[in-house]
Design brief:
The chain is mostly helical and about 250 residues long. It is built from nine helices and two strands, in the order ααααβαααβαα. It has helices at about 5-25, 30-55, 60-90, 105-120, 135-145, 155-165, 165-180, 195-215, 220-245, and strands at about 125-130, 185-190. A two-stranded antiparallel ribbon has the order 1-2. Helix 3 packs parallel to helix 5 and helix 4 (about 105-120) packs parallel to helix 7 (about 165-180).
Length: about 250
């Protein structure tokens, strides 16, 4: 039935958004490319939701989703970091390829590894091991807005802007994010097996605080949101372990 193809169609729209984002990056349209990564993340969210609602889960859909994610949340964010590193590099540039910015593509490599591990790990349904590729991509996409701001947003905004103009800061960030992608750090997912408060409290706290941060800081909130996500995930894991000990 045509209806059962809807989840795969959404996945392909995710892939298409990622492809266009890559083209726009190398045309210098950083804002539009970042917006398309955000659009890709919306398609990525709804393809899984549609598959569950329409009872249309399939192995080909699972594989197609990961292949699309490599492009939209691996290659496209790498392209953004590459251009940011090219623009901030203190080293002489090569006319064909700026070798100093090639480490940016560690994100694509480690995103592919992350997705391959995810595909063979059935335990990552309600939580994750390592930073999810969409979260990582959205964080990187937000850097373009910080990079292009006019340095009139106060100390915090100016600090963030200066970091996105610093080659070594971007290099360090790339390495850190690459490690987080394939780490075994337990991070919470937004899916839940129960609506009981004890199961959802950290997710609710995260969503509420994220909303507040976005309202007051806009795209400049992305570093704070990422840090908040990691901290609350640690607390949620501790809470889960405590519950399991109590049950035993």
């Amino acid at each position: 039935m045509v209806v059962r193809f809807i989840p795969n169609l959404l996945t392909l729209l995710n892939l298409f958004s990622g492809c266009i984002a890559i083209v726009l990056i190398f045309n210098g349209s950083y804002i539009y490319s970042s917006v398309l990564i955000f659009v890709a993340s919306i398609f990525d969210f709804f393809d899984g939701t549609a598959a569950r609602l329409l009872n249309a889960k399939s192995e080909i859909g699972k594989q197609l989703d990961s292949l699309s994610d490599v492009v939209s949340f691996g290659v496209a964010p790498s392209g953004i970091l590459y251009m940011l590193m090219v623009n901030s590099s203190p080293f002489p540039a090569n006319q064909i390829l700026n070798y100093n910015a090639l480490p940016a593509f560690l994100i694509a490599i480690f995103s592919a590894l992350r997705l391959a591990k995810f595909n063979i790990d059935d335990s990552q349904t309600f939580s994750f091991k390592g930073l999810p590729t969409p979260a990582n991509a959205l964080f990187i996409a937000s850097l373009t807005f910080i990079y292009l701001q006019n340095n009139s947003g106060g100390l915090y905004a100016n600090l963030l802007s200066s970091l996105t103009h610093n080659y070594f800061a971007l290099l360090g960030l790339t390495i850190l994010l690459s490690i987080l992608l394939i780490s075994k750090l337990p991070l919470m997912g937004l899916k839940t097996k129960s609506l009981k408060w004890n199961f959802i409290k950290f997710k609710v706290i995260f969503l509420v605080l994220t909303f507040i941060l976005v309202v007051f800081l806009g795209f400049q909130s992305s570093p704070a949101i990422l840090l908040l996500y990691i901290i609350l995930s640690v607390f949620e894991r501790h809470n889960t372990d405590k519950q399991q000990i109590t049950v035993q």
